[in-house]
Amino acid sequence: MLLIWDIHINTRYQEKILGELRTIFSAYPDEKTIVFFGDYVYHFAYDRNALLHLYNLFLELFEQGKNVYIVAGNHDRLGSSFVFEEAQRAFNIIQNSEFIMQNKEWGKIKFVTKPLLETIEGEEILFMPFFLSEEHEINNYTPKNERLKAISDFSTLLEKATHKHEQFSWYINKFLAEQIDKNPNLTIFHHYYINGTAFPGQKSKFNYKDIALNELFLEIPSIKLISGHLHQPFTHNNYLCLGSVRSTSSLETNQNKYVYQYTTANKKITAIPLMINPQVTIRSQEALTETALLTELQAINEANKNYFSSPARDITFKEDFKPNLTNISLTLNVEHIDYDKIDEMIDPELRKSCKDIRLKKDIENVDNLLKSFKVSSDDLSGFSDRKNILQTYMQQKFGNDYPKYEKVLKELKLL
């Protein structure tokens, strides 16, 4: 099967996204199951035109005899409704009709907006889309597995929480613990965070207020967790995060993007590279040439592969790394920003080849900066500590000019 996550389609990138996906689907004609794992909408910006073009792709795959699963993500709601709700209702009707039953060469489309257990290519797969209503009754089931029992018992504490997301975290954890206890070898396709865990390549950790699965699920070797939601792909224990198909902002710099081929018979996964709109940030002390840029891109490629380090997941990378420079938005970290001297920083021909070039002031590493300050609490939990850091930084940066900045900061009540 082919796995695609976090498309975040909009008009600007729809042609590139759909073109790349069609190319991959054509290259793997024997794959009959295609799973789209949610987040079709771009940051809650409902682009009707782009979503209709994506829906046309779903229909193409259906007519080609593919079995298409369209899983709801956290961005895919208009109010309380799924963004493809009308299409979902239509297919629920026509796929049971005599006309569809007579056209055996057609596939099927399933819009997954609530938990769904399916046997696909011989593997038991539980779909857990991002859903916001309790579709399944939670009973007093007590798991027999001790680790699952611990998850279930802890989840009961969340039920009494005042934060609605913590309450919903109780629901999904209680539900998943029961499903795994009944089927210890489940593969779970989900669209949630994992609580309190620092993953490879990730700068943030999440908790139950973000709606999250219990971190103890990562310690159950018999199950396989597969998700998107986070845009940097990685593996960790039994967990594979697929990432997104494109960079949705400049914050997603130096990230590889993939579509995945998953073979259920041997559990092998092949990562197929995508280069829809890569954001690349590098530091260069001399004029950047195409050769130097390609070397940097290869280093970034290898660094991304290192995020897939879990021995529990067998990941193979399709080795056809041929970056298309015309797709790249390049940011050069420089000591001084001067676009009049940009030809001294990057080869003019290379500058014409890249999609976009931006200069960014190189700042001191924040970790090193913080270590140079003395604060009263290591975790910076006090607001006064943050004020001290800001004041010390401004004094060091602006020297004799600091007083005029201090006056403004005090007026803003930042100092």
UniProtKB/TrEMBL annotation:
Source organism per UniProt: uncultured bacterium
GO molecular function, one term: hydrolase activity
A Pfam family hit: Metallophos
InterPro entries named in the record: Calcineurin-like_PHP (IPR004843), Metallo-depent_PP-like (IPR029052)
Bilayer-crossing regions: none
Positions of the Calcineurin-like phosphoesterase domain: 6-233
Domain of life: Bacteria
Official protein name in the record: Calcineurin-like phosphoesterase domain-containing protein
